[in-house]
Amino acid sequence: MFSSIRNFLQRHKRKFIVTGAVFGSLYLLMSYAQKRLREWQEKEAKKFFDMTRKKQHFESTERTCNQTILTLSKIVSESILGILNTEEIVQKLQDKSDNKLALWEQMKIMIFTRICVLVYALSILNVTLRVQLNIIGGYLYRDSMHEDEPLIDSDLQAKYLSLCHHFVGPGVEDLVRQIEKAVKRVVEPISLKKKITLQEIEQVFWSIQTILCTDTNNGDPVKKMVHYLVDHTEINEAKFETIVKETMDILESDEVTSVTMSAVSSNFSKVVDEVATLFASKWVPTKKNHLEVLEDHIVTNGALKLAGNADPFVDVNKVEMHFVKLLPVVNELITKNISNNIPDLITHNLTLNEKLKILGANVYEVFSNV
User: Fold this and answer.
1) What start and end residues bound the annotated signal peptide (predicted)?
2) CA geometry: angle at 213 spanning 212 and 219, to 5°?
3) Are 222 and 261 in contact (CB under 8 A)?
4) Which residues of the chain have pLDDT under 70?
5) Cα(179)–Cα(166) distance, rounded to whole angstroms?
6) Residue 359: is it exposed, middle or buried by C-beta count within 10 angstroms (0-12/13-18/19+)?
């Protein structure tokens, strides 16, 4: 019996060796594949964890950024309205001063300067803060991934963020002086008695923006963001110098300039929309004896409405207002303490601006890469 088994094994020895080698190889391959699969799963799990952690950190940075922007925008707006204070002029006009014409001329310059400075200052503030806070956010994320010496400590953070304090104070004053000159060139020739349309108001803002963009003496405010941020700062530390240079490179880039100009234009459009609402609300409908009744419709000033509808359609592009009558209501739109005053509308528009959000995300991504 044993000899027959031995003979059988000898006859099929090669087959057993080949079969064993095949099964052994399969076992080794399966073991290797399982090991690689576990490594891949662990790698993917770590990658997913890191992405989730990074996303949460970025979202936290964005919330901090928005809150900081809202707080500082309020301070900057109050600073601008304090420098360009129209209350004294309004009071003198109410007191029936002898030089009313000169006061109204001064008022029209100041009101348009206020609006333009708010648009530019809040746009510049939003962009610079968004860049700064996302640079810091990126560095802090990298620090959280390593136990080495931190790239940016609390003292350096405070020093870096204090750069914007110059803009809130002297920077805004510089901006007021520059923009006021541009406003005078455009607004001074407009007579107070002139009947003005919404399209002409829009043209005024566009002309002021064009003058500022092509200002060869003082420079375009958008391209001077670095000046407002770092030109008045003493840099005597290597790490601080590095982060400041990185910030300057970003703020001087064509992408940031383009995004900021887009934000400025968007804010002027928001202001024009609010002025359009004023035109519509201040429009005086045609008197009844000037209406032409045609069957069940009423035609007035070329606008058609149903007889049952009390509110006529108003084409704001055709409405005209005396310039002098427009000034007080626009001034009220700047200063009134409700949610849709011009400073709050501009700040809200900037907070929701998708291009600025993408800019912040791109800056964070660059500085958070390990």
Assistant:
1) none
2) 75
3) yes
4) 1-18, 20, 41-51, 147, 231, 282-315, 337-339, 370
5) 18
6) buried
Of 202, 192, 193, the C-alpha closest to 317 is 202
| Pairing mode, strands 303-306 and 297-300 | antiparallel
Q: What is the distance, to the nearest Å, from the Cα of residue 43 to the centroid of all Cα atoms in its chain?
A: 37
Give the pLDDT confidence score for residue 237 in this predicted structure: 82
Is residue 160 a contact partner of residue 243, using CB atoms and an 8 Å limit? Answer: yes
Backbone φ, ψ for residue 166 (5° rounding)? -65, -40
pLDDT in tens, 240-271: 888 988 999 999 999 999 999 999 999 999 99
DSSP 147-166: -SS-SS-HHHHHHHHTTHHH
Which pairs count as long-range contacts for 212-219, CB under 8 Å and 24+ apart, including other chains?
A: 212/120, 212/178, 212/179, 212/182, 213/261, 215/178, 215/182, 218/178
Q: What is the side-by-side order of every strand in the sheet holding 297-300?
A: 292-294, 297-300, 303-306
H/E stretch holding 229: helix 225-230
| Distance in angstroms (rounded) separating the CA atoms of residues 263 and 360 | 14
pLDDT score, position 235: 74
133: exposed, middle or buried (Cβ count in 10 Å: 0-12, 13-18, 19+):
buried
* Residues 157 and 64: beta-carbon distance below 8 Å: no
- Helix axis angle, 100-145 to 342-351, nearest 10°: 30
Instruction: Return d(Cα 198, Cα 87) in angstroms, integer.
Output: 25
pLDDT tens for residues 96-105?
Answer: 777 888 889 9
Cα distances (angstroms) measured from residue 340 to each of 50, 67, 183, 249: 41, 19, 24, 36
Residue reference for tokens 């703020």 = 251
- Strand, helix or coil for residue 288: helix
Residues in the chain: 370
DSSP letters, 236-250, are: --HHHHHHHHHHHHH
Q: Which residues contact 330 (CB under 8 A, 6 or more apart)?
A: 111, 115, 275, 278
